[in-house]
Amino acid sequence: MNKVKVAVIGAGVRGTYAYPPYILENPHLCEIVAVAETKKGRRDLFSQRYNLKDGSVFESAERFFESEKIADAVIITTSDDRHYNYAKLALEKGYHVLLEKPMANSLDGLVHLKELSEIYNDKILMTCYVLRYTEFFKKLKDIIDSKELGELVSIQHNENIGYWHFVHSYVRGNWRNSSDTSPIILTESCHDMDILLYLTGSQCRKVASFGKLKHFNSDSFKLTMSENCYRCSEEEHCPYSCKKIYLENTRILNNAVHINPTKENLDNILKEGPYGRCVYRCDNNVVDNMVSIIEFENDVTATFNLSAFTKECNRTIKLMFTNGEVGGSFKDNEIRIKKFGQDKEELINTYKDDLSQNEGNINLIKSFIRLVSEDNINKDGNNIKEAIESHVMAFAAEYSRVSEEVVHIDEFFENAIRMTNEIESTLL
Prior knowledge:
Domain Gfo/Idh/MocA-like oxidoreductase C-terminal: 141-314
Protein name: Gfo/Idh/MocA family oxidoreductase
Helix content: 25-40%
Distance between the termini: 46 Å
Family: Belongs to the Gfo/Idh/MocA family.
Organism: Romboutsia faecis
Strand content: 15-25%
Strand order of the largest sheet: 14-13-12-11-7-10-9-8-15
Domain Gfo/Idh/MocA-like oxidoreductase N-terminal: 4-118
């Protein structure tokens, strides 16, 4: 295997902590040779953490791509609205690409990404669908394919976002407003759409969705509350208090609030910063609950439920077969198999001692590095067609929610392609 040189575009939480640690720990396989990041503090932290010299540190992705090609591959973990543009620049420059989800935050971006993947078909273009790389979902796929419980009939899939994670990301944080980013079913759940495609082994036929911003809005604000948690008389009894979420817990998301998240630093920045705002007085507009009903080409049906109103951040699932049912908890790494006509159920624990809670991240980056090293663009994981389909499902689900229509996927994406082509032809 050839040693793979990697550049990281975007040194935020995922760009710093999700994938680069594996590269640092496996210097015989790969190395980080450059970083591009607009924020000086994060740029300096990344450079120090991954031993980069000044000539390998860029103040923007644009400056990086303007320079000569210095790596084999790039990992793009910037804000969502820049994913497509930077993927385009990377492919044009000759880089293999690992692209954080969502790959694009617009339908026309997906149309162009599909075109780019066909033009640069000698390059690996992967999206960060980490769920596929976990033992939990691999085992569920094995159970389905074995036919031991008969044919798969229906799936109930839940993304329990967790109240603290939701208010951090989708009320106070970077993904709070779909006008600036994307609908939550795309930003948070496009890889749940992908998992449904993966498990069913079929394309999506149609989708219908329902949901709204029910709680985290100004209607829930009381006169006894304040714009900031530090000045609020209700803070002590509020589960969404920034003090409870950030100061009383040590979570990776604290790194998004402050580059050096000591209690003192967090305390100071929360008093005036965006993450200290009252959850009922933010400029958020993404829904806090949403249900989608999905039908696949092989006649398997599914419901997908995303909700802010759960205590734990977890995914739970139930698979219903002609001869049994399977239930699973992703966080607990547990799968329960119940065969019809048998009283005893089988419990499978998919946790492995050599894998951490970052199992999906680790296995994903391992696969990407291996594919780049072998220069193999045909292996599993490099299927951009399926990745695009999952994104189209997410956009279709949001369109259904807003329009109150059942959306046929093929027709929906064909219209997107036609409209994109028509708009571009008028600009020529």
